[in-house]
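Protein modeling request. Please complete all fields; requests missing the sequence field cannot be processed.
Requester role: graduate student
Desired output: 3D structure, token encoding
Chains: 1
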Amino acid sequence: MAIITEKKKIKIDHECKDFPIYLTWLNGVGGYDSWLFFKERTETTRTKVSNKYVKNVEDLENAVATNDITGKDIAPQMKIGGRIEAEDMDGMQSLFESPKVMMLMNPDTWESDGAKWQRVIVKAGSLLTFKTRTSYLDVRLTLELNYRFKQKE
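Delivered output (153 residues):
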């Protein structure tokens, strides 16, 4: 006879999602939790000049500029959202507090190609919850994706 040591609740939803973002994260007790966010997805990019300097221009007639940069650092972000039952909010809190969060990078082909995960960071202070008239909460948070570096001159 098997002994039950842990109860798990699995929720299955067969509805098609508009902007599926599947996350898995290390929870507070050492296991992994997962969630499919689908309500909102907005991608943004922040850039930062790596090094800016002033040129010494000798030929003013043919000069293109008096200042230049050596490159840019690119920091992509993604704002995601979903509708979550109020009873599942503890799990969302553990996502926000987790040091290890991963995003599925091939949601359309993971069954045939195998899952490809990328480490992301939940931006500090970005978890927003909004109460609705039902037992659901609208949740939004911002993910910091991996930096990209442009070639320097």
